[in-house]
Design goal:
Shape: globular
Order of helices and strands: HHHHHHHHHHHH
Helix content: over 70%
Number of strands: 0
Oligomer: single chain
């Protein structure tokens, strides 16, 4: 599969997932299918960032999308009183943090351990700024805008676990054997942590795994990742950037105004 084909499939799965998220009383299998979407998008972004001729422009574009989406989330959330589902979706913030680390790792003039430490410390600092701003305003809805404008490990969509997934793709993408081993290990660890969350909950295991904490089902994306053939396919770059906010706006208002 080409990059474009992978993105179109991820887009379809994302639409299915967000339909289940924003429209009331949708069946859970929509959210289950949607677990495969984000890994495919992140995988394609890892390749896109690797191939791009100007990484600084790529990072700037991702940052502007992150800030814009964060502000849009805030506007949507205050536009309707007591919405069915608050909008916290901002995959651009996560992609920016992943790509920024990949850029620093590639360009760094210092030791890797020092770079990683500084990166984590810097993100902790950004997290404090975001939380201080939200605390000072007393409006928790501003968290989406603040974290979009100051994307960091702790408030980006998916937080640290999704960032770590991105690192698996950044470092393992070029060899299929490394890819499936790295991603399988990542998903196995994630599943074990899911079981720890289940422990003592008193909820039947099947119910917990397939209705409450379903993120471990991101493993469903692995066959698609392995089908990637390295080709770009038809270029539709800006279509994906536009579709993301537009479909969230549409589903948000459909879910709140028509149901």
């Amino acid at each position: 599969m080409s990059t474009n084909a992978c993105k179109l499939l991820a887009l379809a799965l994302m639409l299915i997932d967000h339909t289940g998220e924003f429209i009331p009383n949708m069946p859970i299998f929509l959210r289950i299918l949607g677990r495969a979407s984000a890994p495919i998008f992140i995988f394609c972004t890892a390749w896109g960032f690797y191939y791009t001729h100007d990484k600084k422009i790529y990072l700037l574009r991702m940052y502007l999308c992150s800030a814009g989406m964060g502000i849009l989330d805030f506007i949507l959330n205050i536009s309707i009183q007591n919405p069915y589902q608050l909008v916290t979706n901002n995959i651009f913030s996560t992609l920016f943090v992943i790509c920024l680390f990949a850029y620093l790792w590639e360009k760094q003039p210092i030791a890797k351990t020092t770079l990683t430490t500084l990166f984590v410390v810097g993100n902790i600092g950004l997290w404090f700024v975001v939380m201080f701003f939200v605390g000072m305003t007393g409006n928790t809805l501003l968290l989406s805008a603040a974290s979009g404008c100051l994307p960091n490990l702790f408030t980006c969509e998916g937080s640290i676990p999704i960032f770590l997934m991105g690192l698996v793709f950044v470092f393992c993408k070029e060899q299929k054997q490394s890819l499936w081993k790295g991603y399988t290990i990542y998903c196995a660890i994630y599943f074990c942590l899911t079981l720890l969350g289940y422990w003592g909950s008193g909820i039947p295991l099947g119910t917990y795994l397939f209705t409450i904490d379903i993120q471990w089902l991101q493993i469903l994306s692995l066959p698609i990742l392995l089908l990637y053939n390295g080709s770009k396919g038809r270029q539709m770059k800006y279509f994906f950037y536009l579709f993301y906010p537009l479909h969230i706006i549409a589903l948000y208002y459909i879910g709140n105004l028509l149901f």
